[in-house]
TrEMBL record, chains A, B:
The active site is at 320 (proton acceptor), 408 (schiff-base intermediate with substrate). It comes from Oryza nivara (Indian wild rice). The modification 2',4',5'-topaquinone is found at residue 408. Keywords: Copper, Disulfide bond, Metal-binding, Oxidoreductase, Signal, TPQ. Contains 1 topaquinone per subunit. This is Amine oxidase. GO terms for biological process: amine metabolic process. Belongs to the copper/topaquinone oxidase family. Its EC number is 1.4.3.-.
Length: 663, 663
């Protein structure tokens, strides 16, 4: 990604309205903090006498979730009311990262119950306000004005953004960041395609001072023509392909119900939360077992904590979630474009740097997806009964959020299926950036020439999902069923009869004992990856489980293990991560976490969707979406296909129907 | 797959009505043979004096397509009328496989223009009639009656099917096949779950005699209870998950137009053909380039010639397309279950064993898919212009066929996207079969216990697609862009400035000179696979191309190279195949085809979708669909994103829209 740009002279920045506090009686234990609670948290932190330094800048405020056993035993609202509600706060004051836990159970008797200083490497996310302020520092800086003058540009012609400087071996005590600028004049909205090349500022985003300045070379300003993607600029004529308009109509209304943050649909029930860092958080997903008439839990929680440690060149190795925040960066969804007409939507709340609640409207949508797919079907063409066809069309429920971080748009879908599957889809979209100033590594051109003078650099995208699986209970194991070929030896029939076959394959069942054993590069030998509950078995004795099915985008990082971006983002090869991303060093992730036992424990899966992106001209000036996905699918979780006892659709002749002639 | 079953005493078999011949003036050169033409072909073959043996059994009749240059220069109907129309026929007579080419240009002056005998190994597809007849052979066979008696079964309780015996090293002169039987009594439609275990007949399907008989052991008959999948048997109560009914409404009507066999939609135009062996054949697919205002061809032809050489045990290594025929096995689609209400459909014609045309109704459908996806989007959150969001929702066009071969249902989708992509999706569905009689190989249980006494055996599915690519012309090359990591050495900046980075990756561009070089196991080193037209370049000099993107289901065969099923289906590791599948040996595929040059030639891609299937209980008694796919996506084919000059949807405020506040 590239960060949002800030005009040097005037600030045009989308700031959602800070709203008045609202009361929300009896929240679910996992409900995000309400505006009332967020406001109360701010008061408590500001009133906390042990931190006297001012200003206090709020970088993160979110729910400090109760322990899982407490949540699991207090799921109804009345019971939940007796659980304490606590907030976790990361704030900067006096050059330190403070962590606060605030009890907000009783908003009239608030208190900070815990306070600490984070003294490891890494800093919290940038606040919007400091990005705006840092982006404007160049304004009164004479060398910058001279740089513009040399290029024939006015101050109003450029906008600047804060780029995380990442980590290259040196632990900085200061919150330094790079500021780079782009031409915003010329009438195109595609600023990122027009960099102010050669100019880099190093700034202290906290003290708001310029630490270093470099104007390496005055390249010519890339032209604006052909870069805009807005309809009003691309046409008329609009001679691009326009399919016929269509809309999904649900004669009996929506099939799902939203009660607070709980969504109920078909055989699914789950909680949709929101976090300013992780964005959408799905919790307590349970599927109904029609045969057993039981609700059975599949996962406790899933969200996207880390996202896109893009491997570009030099310091461009961003970690969007940890550095800029997915929740903060979620954008209002556009009806009938970002989602179909039959959707419902939800709002979210985060805090500004001053700790005040900000409402983000319409950032999560929920809709039923009628894609024309088939859940199961069969045609029986012979037998004593007339020929039959049975078909059950597939309808799914999608929970969607779109996150925009600078030039990148991520569409994050969670798709629930009646067959018991949860499919997670990450759809990437980005605007091409003009990288003619690629100058760090020059063995080759390092990218594709996608337009005149515009090289789009090769890069990777890694999106890591955090899945706290609870397959029919909290104690689970991770199984690797490797598919093993057997050649020549071992091929025989029990009956003793000779068999002409010379090979076959079978399955090697292995339980991962430790986290280290649970690390899998899915591009290795073919294997089915299962999460099972070893204490629950089906009637015929199989361990109850779910299977992880990658669906494209299985790239893993090709960087050297000793390269700095790789050390920070070691989960792109190995799949675990920590909390302080910005300028983090990687010490808080893999190394400490590999020896813990994961057999028959409350395990967490970190799954990384990966894409190597070799750009092409179709990616200019704004690329068509590409996607990666994975699916969690029942594997001996149900006694049989859970859709067998499903009524055929409507009164249509589509099911149990005969065709052709018998004779 | 398992073959369709035939009742021993009474035939219940779906035979579509043979219809009267119709005239069809001025067909497109690739239009399938009309009923008039099929009828005429039969007359010509029967009148051909050099083949006197009777009966003549018709196994295949299809269009003998004109040479590609002729087709390409005769695409309008008037011009096409001057091209000869020819049929290709495979028929059996006098124990030989005859091949006829029949000129049907003038149906009043028909003639066989060529006749030959196929003398290599392998036989044509089974006809429906000989399967029915062979399935009934056991009826009057005393040992079979005794076998039934020993199990307490009546003749009316069982149905039998013809199983290809495949090839295990011995070239048979006779068309032998195995016949196995299933219990059709007991009120369940799930016959395949109830095998008549231990009983196998070896029959000559042409002479209709039993060659060998074996009743190894009398297992108990598996129970019928719990195996049925019909709504009337599964409920009430219907307590399975039923999403709300929904339907796609298109206020301005369908967006596509079907003119004969030509489909036009959005920026696509293509021809939909039908073949009794290959099923749906998509030809002459061209995409409109809005910037250049040109129609540009992407592929000449795509179809599924070989399908599912299932790796099970011993002889169960079926090749559905070659042995049973996808076109013949296509089933009438069920409205609003197999496809949405906004679809149109097409019929197909094949011939029966007597050579007479048979109409297959409603076997191909075409519909616009409104899945709620996004083609491209961007939110711009800063700049001198008010914050903007541009979104283009994604609508695609699907061409679908469902093929049922015994216990398998394949849904074959071709999905056309406005971004210029063609996505091919193969959705598998099968009914569990009761494999308690697994007795050929017993090192392990070789499968999953999916219900009481029911082991579903491990197996593979391979579906091979034939793609005659014409990327902006017929002469194309195949490029492998391997992603190569560069560690430590070679990491430097041109400016001479030190860089802290220790690794990066780049792309190694390789052109495949020969077919052997073009064979790729996509599970190897990460690589982008491109098909380019080296003689056509974009304005900035990139070769015009398309990229092949696998989407799941990338399994390759794990069988030994010297195992017989692998020798026949060598394309499951290597990707080429021949024409005579049934009892074929593999001599007509890879070996002879690997040395031909493919650089800057009219190349054909054989792409194999592969799935290792480790069954689970959810697959019983009928499994939810699983799928594999691949996409052909423009890669420097267009000068830029082809959807840039696309009008936003309707009059909605979804595009070029602002949100939030600026200030």
């Amino acid at each position: 990604m590239y960060p949002p740009l800030v005009l040097v002279l005037a600030i045009f920045f989308a700031v959602a309205t800070a709203i008045a506090a609202l009361s929300s009686p009896l929240p679910h234990p996992l409900d995000p903090l309400s505006p009332t609670e967020l406001t109360a948290v701010r008061s408590a932190v500001l009133a906390f006498s042990l931190v006297a330094s001012r200003p206090i800048s709020f970088h993160y405020v979110g729910l400090d979730e109760p322990e899982k056993p407490d949540v699991l035993s207090h799921t109804n609202a009345a019971a939940a009311a007796i659980l304490p509600r606590r907030a976790f706060v990361i704030a900067r004051a006096g050059g330190l990262s403070h962590e606060f836990y605030v009890d907000v159970t009783n908003t009239s008797a608030l208190r900070v119950v815990s306070h600490g200083i984070h003294d490891g490497p890494g800093f919290p996310m940038f606040t919007t306000e400091e990005q705006v302020a840092a982006g404007q520092l160049s304004r009164e800086y004479p060398p910058f004005r001279e740089s513009l003058q040399r290029r024939g540009l006015a101050l109003t012609d450029v906008g600047c953004g804060v780029f995380s400087m990442e980590w290259f071996g040196k632990n900085e005590a200061r919150r330094l960041a790079k500021v780079q600028c782009f031409i915003v004049a010329g009438g195109t909205a595609n600023y990122y395609a027009r960099p102010l090349e050669g100019v880099t500022l190093l700034v202290d985003v906290e003290k708001l001072v310029i630490v270093a300045y470099r104007d390496r070379a005055a390249y010519s300003v890339p032209k604006a023509e052909g870069t805009d993607y807005r309809a009003g600029k691309a046409g008329p004529p609009f001679n691009g392909a326009v399919p016929a308009p269509g809309v999904v109509v649900q004669p009996e209304g929506k099939g799902f119900h939203i009660d607070g943050h709980i969504v109920r649909w078909a055989n699914w029930e789950f909680h949709v939360g929101f976090d300013m860092r992780a964005g959408t958080v799905i919790s307590m997903a349970s599927v109904h077992d029609a045969d057993a008439d039981l609700w059975r839990r599949v996962l406790y929680r899933i969200f996207v904590p880390y996202m896109d440690p893009e491997e570009e060149w030099y310091f461009h190795t961003f970690m969007d979630a940890g550095e800029y925040g997915l929740g903060v960066s979620a954008v209002p969804l556009q009806p009938e474009a970002d989602y179909p007409a039959n959707a419902a939507y939800m709002d979210g709340y985060y805090v500004d740097a001053d700790g005040k609640p900000v409402k983000s409207e319409n950032i999560i949508c929920v809709f039923e997806r009628y894609a024309g797919d088939i859940a199961w079907r069969h045609t029986g063409v012979a037998g004593p009964i007339a020929p039959i066809t049975e078909v059950r069309p597939d309808v799914t429920l999608v929970v969607r959020m779109v996150v925009t971080v600078g030039n990148y748009d991520y569409t994050l879908d969670w798709e629930f299926k009646t067959v018991g599957s949860i499919k997670t889809v990450c759809i990437l979209e980005m605007k091409a950036t003009n990288y003619t100033h690629v100058d760090q590594i020059r063995d080759d051109i390092h990218g594709t020439l996608i337009a005149e003078n515009t090289v789009d650099v090769y890069h990777d995208h890694f999106i890591t999902y955090h899945l706290d699986l609870d397959i029919d209970g909290t104690k689970n194991s991770f199984i690797k069923n490797t598919i093993i070929p057997k050649h020549n030896t071992g091929v025989r029939a029990t009956s003793g009869a000779p068999t002409p076959r010379r090979s076959y394959w079978t399955v090697l069942y292995e339980v991962a004992e430790t986290e280290a054993e649970g690390q899998v590069n899915i591009n290795g030998a073919p294997a089915d990856l299962l999460f099972v509950n070893p204490s629950k078995k089906t009637k015929v004795g199989n361990e109850v489980g779910y299977r992880l099915i990658p669906a494209g985008a299985t790239a893993t990082s090709l960087l050297a293990n000793n390269d700095y971006p790789q050390r920070r983002a070691s989960y792109t090869k190995k799949q675990v991560s920590g909390l302080y991303a910005e300028q983090s060093t990687g010490d808080d992730n893999l190394a400490a976490w590999s020896k813990r036992r994961i057999k028959d424990e409350d395990i967490v899966l970190w799954y990384t969707v990966g894409l190597h992106h070799v750009p092409c001209q179709e990616d200019f000036p704004v690329m068509p979406t590409i996607s990666g996905a994975f699916e969690l699918r029942p594997f001996n979780f149900f006694e049989r296909n859970p859709l067998i006892r499903t009524r055929p659709p409507g009164n249509s002749p589509n099911c149990s129907c005969s065709f052709g002639r018998s004779g």
